[in-house]
Description:
The protein is α+β, with helices and mostly antiparallel strands. Helix content is 39%, strand content 18%. The protein has eight helices and 15 strands.
Amino acid sequence: MKRLLSxxxxxxxxxxxxxxxxxxxxxxxxxxxxxxxxxxFDEKLFKEAGLLPFKNKKQLVLKELDSLSRAKSAHIQLKNxxxxxxxxxxxxxxxxxxxxxxxxxxxxxxxxxxxxxxxxLVGYQFSGLNDxxxxxVPMTNWxxxxxxxxxxxxxxNSMIYYENKLDSWLATHPNYYLDYKVTPIYQDDExxxxxxxxxxxxxxxxxxxLEIKLGxxxxxxxxxxxxxxxxxxxxxxAEINYLDGSATNTVESQKEREEKEKVEWEKAEKExxxxxxKExxxxxxKExxxxxxKExxxxQREEQERAKKEEQERVQKENQQKSNVGxxxxxxxxxxxxxxxxxxxxxxxxKKEIREAGLEW
Length: 361
């Protein structure tokens, strides 16, 4: 009897355990609740904000090339664990339309660097794409890497500034997603984009948007909490023809500058010599003119003095003659140049004689 009761108790225990086990499996989180969590985001809001729909997984959308073979936009949504782990191959085979391989002088003209790079719209650290033509456009190294050569991710005018900061944001928010879109801005049929627009926003596990500010002065946040940045595709050492991608180096090489300075110095020296020579000639001419003028004035004075003397002598002579003529009389008396009367024999006449002769003393 005891053995029967023991057996009965064992059977009942087994039945109870089986029943409990079945109940535990049925109390797992229903699939419907998981689906509700994934679909919690505001689809309309995401669309109005220009975002990819939130699917709680990595997404990458690349627009097709346009009729001019230009890349149009690249849009990605990912979290930190979605980033590629393989190292990027630095060599690219595809040349985006309008790209040229120019090596230009920069800075003080002592060094050269490549002007343009084949820039990724969405960086490799996010997309894992390297030689994808829909994701490549011609960018100046200044725009792409923040410097003429090498990388300077402290330059807020560069793509690398925002890419590295967004990468850090993902690393510090491993459960959040980043929605990141990059759009080249072309003018009419130009092959080179004049600007690149970045837009980015964070997304939490529930699909709510999170504003991201990276500290750049170019950042502008819209009504959807999406941050926008517009960067210029320029380089201070070049003048770019955006229509076809050709460019001109605006920085002279050190050799060119030295040659130019030498030519300018020689020109200035020659001009200084010519100026000094001209000034010396003008001075000599002026001195000669002044000397000639003084000589002329002296000659004129001498001529005037001579003429005056001659005139005085002439007048004196005429007076003498008049005096002689006037003093001629029947008695033969005459006056000398001093007004003294003389007898015809030349001896001085007396006052009495002259009066008796009817002449005036």
